[in-house]
Automatic annotation (TrEMBL):
InterPro entries attached to this UniProt entry: WD40/YVTN_repeat-like_dom_sf
Leader sequence residues: 1-27
Keyword tags: Signal
Name of the protein described by the UniProt record: Virginiamycin B lyase
Organism: Streptomyces hundungensis
Coiled-coil ranges per UniProt: none
Amino acid sequence: MVNRNRARSAVLAATAAVLVLSLGSCSDDQNEDSARIPVAEPGKVAAFALGELSTTYDLDHTAVNESGHITSDKAGNIYLASDSNSPLMPILRMTPEGKVSQFTKIKESHSDSGFTAAPDGSLVTGGGDGLWRVSSKGTVTSLESQRRFKLPNPIGIRPDGTVVVIDGESVWSLKDGQAAELLTFPANQGRVRGAVAPDGTIYLSNSRLDNLRVLAPGSPPRTLTIQGDLPGAGKPLSEMAIMQMTPATDGGVYAKVQWDPQKGGGGFVYIVHIAPSGTLTAMARASEQGKSCAAGEQYAALDNPCVMPWFLARSGDQVLALGDIYDPERKPSPALAIHAPRG
């Protein structure tokens, strides 16, 4: 009888332990899965707390402005990293729904200039050590090039596998180890930014919206004539500067534009779609100093109380605006999801 009671007690204890472990596991999963990237209604922006998408990784710190790097792949996954002041820099992957995991860790000098996603699921990274390819399994290999770049920033990959690289004021193509200069902007006129559309067209700018250069495959560079309207801007398009770009699914680019900081800045900040024809469509408008934007709420896209985040990334039928100035003394401003249907 004693042995039977002991056996019964052991079974009950084991069952209780399993139950506790199961409840603990469920609790962890629920914490990790409780927050999701919202789906913005047409004509709305959906505000959400980026940092609440993960209890494991500090997304607010990873997406900090200037020191952060963000790109997305054709499946809508977003890759994020930030200069970490450590030998290895984590690169995080966030699904369109908002599930976050670590993609890999890489030497910071391999990727301190930026990275772009390749069609095969790998990343091409660039930094003081040159250009590198990071496989979907985390294997890192050097990207062969007969040219020694200074601080290469890969911004996209054309359908034929050509990697497009910004290095200072110059833009290069790299394929099979051969580098060719595509375009050089005048020095000291602003940081060169760019994006590569799915059809291989490269969009580049180092300053104003009216200086957007386009390089279609097999064609020489040309300046795209922009036509459209920015509600409430109070400034001509020629005085608006491009701050960020990301490729649009069906051609052209999404861009973050604002009044040229070299002329004082201020005013509204816009997310726009620029079509291959040059037609500009305002998708969202926010300010540099929001008032009462609350995570979990949806607001009119062109009339809301939100601060415009730093980075842009396309993810499925949405454009996400992410990142803020990192300040441990205050709560980060919400990220924004913006409706951007295909077709």
